[in-house]
Design goal:
- It is a single chain.
- Helices cover 41% and strands 21% of the residues.
- By secondary structure, the protein is α/β, with parallel strands linked by helices.
- It folds into three domains: 3-74, Orthogonal Bundle (Arc Repressor Mutant, subunit A), CATH 1.10.10; 93-161 and 261-289, Periplasmic binding protein-like II (D-Maltodextrin-Binding Protein, domain 2), CATH 3.40.190; 165-245, D-Maltodextrin-Binding Protein, domain 2 (3-Layer(aba) Sandwich).
- Strands 4-3-5-11-6 form a five-stranded mixed beta sheet, sandwiched between helices.
């Protein structure tokens, strides 16, 4: 079927409904009624001769055909919106939207972005920070720099750097830590990745104690809590070199554990633009030079 035969309003109604998981939320975004959205989706399904949604008692579920169509439409609408914004503003530079886990953004990327701007002045760079759980598709990201094992479905990944974990704490707490076993008497601040402390204690050849500390979804927050004396945090120390050099926190032991790496990721369905290619080449060169 030719794309020109497909109704644009129906395509927009489907894309918003699939991305937001609701005809009602799609209607709010597109400023039409829920009934209008549902009607447009049915028009599209009739035109295509297939079901794109399973209507469930508590919402919508995409069919296999819907899953296949959604990324292409979201990317197309995102690119059209970005281009129209450029035309309206008289700005013909290419927009690049990069999501970055906050720890990497503050600990490594921000201090180097000036160099990227100087090398690529035609790129309108937009940065979105998050806690490692952003959705590339829903958030309209060209790239997402995240921490983990590199195994994300439907995603093309480029390894950036390994970042071993090690404990950090306020100087007053560090002064009473003589050996790793002393940590059993301290509050151990945790991230949502629950096995990290166990990995570190195994690296230290010690049985992990029962964990009873607070839990955080951000390394930035857990380091701030540690600096204020709330307990001992386990973090990628390379991202907090300035805080350690400034004396706000200390690294009481040299023992490290590996729990993941930073990766540059993008959807496999997202074609690489000139600005994306420029950013990928730039960041890899910066890392090689570090």
């Amino acid at each position: 079927m030719e794309v020109s035969q497909l109704p644009l309003n129906a395509l927009r109604a489907f894309e918003a409904s699939a991305r937001l998981g609701s005809f009602t939320r799609a209607g709010l975004e597109l400023r039409v009624t829920q009934t209008a959205i549902s009607h447009q989706v049915r028009i599209l399904e009739a035109t295509l001769g297939m079901s794109l949604f399973e209507r469930l008692p508590r919402g919508l579920a995409l069919t296999d055909e819907g899953h296949l169509l959604l990324p292409a439409l979201t990317d197309a609408f995102h690119r059209m919106s970005a281009t129209l914004s450029q035309l309206e503003e008289g700005n013909f530079r290419e927009i690049l939207t990069v999501g970055v886990v906050g720890t990497f953004a503050i600990g490594w990327l921000l201090s180097r972005l000036k160099g990227f701007k100087e090398q690529h002045p035609y790129v309108d760079f937009r940065l979105k920070t998050n806690n490692n759980r952003a959705d590339i598709l829903v958030d309209g990201l060209d790239f997402f720099i995240r921490f983990g094992d590199g195994a994300w479905h439907g995603t093309e990944v480029t390894h950036l750097m390994d970042v071993p974990l090690s404990p950090v704490c306020a100087p007053a707490i560090g002064a009473r830590l003589r050996n790793p076993a002393d940590l059993a008497d301290e509050e151990l601040l945790r991230s949502y990745r629950r096995d990290e402390w166990s990995l570190w204690f195994r690296a230290a050849n010690i049985d992990p104690p029962s964990l009873r500390g607070w839990m955080f979804d951000s390394s930035l927050a857990v380091v701030e809590a540690a600096a204020q004396g709330a307990g001992v945090a386990l973090v990628p120390v390379a991202m907090f070199a300035r805080e350690i050099a400034g004396g706000r926190i200390v690294q009481p032991f040299d023992i490290t554990a590996f729990a993941g790496s930073y990766w540059l990721t993008r959807l496999k369905s997202r074609p690489e633009t000139a600005s994306m290619r420029a950013f990928r080449q730039w960041i890899l060169a910066e890392i090689d030079a570090t």
